[in-house]
Amino acid sequence: MNLVSSDHHKGKMKIAAFALALLVIGGAGGCFFGDLKTENKNQSASFSYQLPTQEGKKLQELPAIRNTAVVQAVKEVGPAVVGITTRVYDRDIFNRRVEVGQSVGSGVIFDKKGYIVTNNHVVSGSKDVNVSLSNGTTVPGKVVGTDASTDLAVVKIEGNDSLPVAQFGDSDALQVGETAIAIGNPLGLEFQGTVTVGVISALNRSLDNIDQRFKLIQTDAAINPGNSGGALVTADAKVVGINSAKIAKEGVEGMGFAIPVNSAKGIIRQLIDNGRVVRAYLGVYAADKDIAMRYGYNWDHEHGVLVMKIASHSPLSLTEIRPGDYIMAIDGKAFDTVKAMREILDTHKPGDRITLTYEHNGREKKTEVLLAAAPENNK
After folding, report:
1. What digits encode the pLDDT tens for the residues 145-187?
2. Which entry of 147, 151, 220, 325 is annotated as an active-site residue?
3. Catalytic site residue 121?
4. 341 in helix, strand or coil?
5. DSSP 3-state of 17
6. Which of 218, 235, 302, 345 is most buried, taking the most CB atoms under 10 A from its CB?
7. What is the largest CA-CA distance in the chain?
8. 49 pLDDT more than 70
9. Given the residues 121, 132, 171, 263, the one annotated as active site
10. Which of 290, 311, 288, 297 is CA-nearest to residue 12?
């Protein structure tokens, strides 16, 4: 991609560096890679789920003083949290594709038809997976849809009325300080169904190292590799987040992150219906002040984002906007970052007509744009 300069824009930018910043798509934290031989190739897809037991005995009722809200929530949601295993391949010295191990993550059953939500990076590149249920049964699963931009994916196993299902809560109603319970498979299936407890540490978090499409829930409930795709649960046994990313830095503890379920629901529905997410498409490659400063460019504009390149045959290519112009607002909603612009675009669907406010040669103008559907390879 070559930078196109304008009369009002002095100097040259190093577009290769900008392109790296513009095209980064995140899928951070979470799978455990190991030589885990857990699949049963002869496993039938037909099964009847039975509740897990402790040491061969049915779970007994606890005294009231021990039967806390956390215990009750884990009993209700825990059976719906599964392990997801995918094969990991490499090339040998003869360039032959050989299996070198397996990747293990977590997932949450949310529908008796057998639908499971997990992270995209847990199943990335796979069509078939093995799903380990909480009672020890392993069944085959199919990846029905993935979305790298939100790090979400949906897997399907055969459903039946005996299948345990977790209930989604309202992540918009969360409050900082309330109990948070993480359920998943840290470090592989050997520790399947591990429960950690903490609080909701913060809401609406953004991470610099991933290109996220919505704000995250922060928790201090321990989330380790393998927890990705597992459930973040409230004390009333409602799943409010899908555990996704963890800050993996030496000396940093108690900072785990989850995708809010209210943000995930629409993505999940599209993955089931279409196998992918169909997003509104404008066709602009843009830079903002933060990106410019990161790569040593002296940003000399107060508002908006700089148009770096316009995709051919895109909605924006049909307007008078050109590289070097600044897009200032969409439908009157002003923004100063590429991320903020994208968040506004994500509230629209293909076929919507929007009004762009932009600056050309120092003069403010407006134009209407008919949004298209994003190409399948568009991030």
Report:
1. 999 888 999 999 998 888 999 999 999 999 999 999 999 988 7
2. 151
3. yes
4. helix
5. helix
6. 218
7. 78
8. no
9. 121
10. 297
Catalytic residue among 228, 244, 263, 314, which?
228
Q: Parallel, antiparallel, or unpaired for β 194-205 and 284-287?
A: unpaired
The closest alpha carbon to 200, from 212, 186, 216, belongs to 216
Q: Please report which residue ranges of the chain form alpha helices under DSSP H.
A: 15-23, 69-77, 120-123, 261-274, 289-294, 338-345
Tokens found for residue 84: 């997801």
User: What is the distance, to the nearest Å, from the Cα of residue 164 to the centroid of all Cα atoms in its chain?
Assistant: 23
> Cα separation of 367 and 319, whole Å?
7
Name the amino acid, one letter, at 298. N
Tokens of 14: 């190093």
What Å distances lie between residue 243 and 41, 232, 237, 347, CA to CA?
29, 6, 16, 23
Tokens of 34: 């190991």
pLDDT (tens digit per residue) in 100-155: 667 788 999 999 999 999 999 888 878 889 999 988 889 999 999 999 888 999 99
Task: Tokens for 280, please give them.
Answer: 């509104």
Query: Structure tokens of 184?
Result: 């998943």
pLDDT tens, position by position, 60-105 = 677 888 889 999 999 999 999 999 988 766 777 877 777 666 778 8
Can you tell me the distance from the alpha carbon of 26 to that of 360, in angstroms, rounded to the nearest whole number?
Answer: 33
Cα 143 from Cα 155, distance rounded (Å) = 4
Rg (Cα) of the chain, in Å, rounded?
A: 23
Question: E strand or H helix at 299, and its extent?
Answer: none
Chain CA centroid to CA 91, Å: 29
Q: How far is CA 42 from CA 39, 130, 138, 139, 248, in A?
A: 9, 12, 10, 10, 38
The yes-or-no answer on residue 301 being catalytic is: no
Phi, psi of 194 (to 5 degrees): -65, 135
Q: What is the pTM of this model?
A: 0.73
Determine the Cα–Cα distance for residues 160 and 338; give it in Å rounded to an integer: 44
**Torsion (CA) 139, 36, 150, 117 in degrees, nearest 10:** 20
| DSSP 8-state secondary structure symbol assigned to residue 294 | H
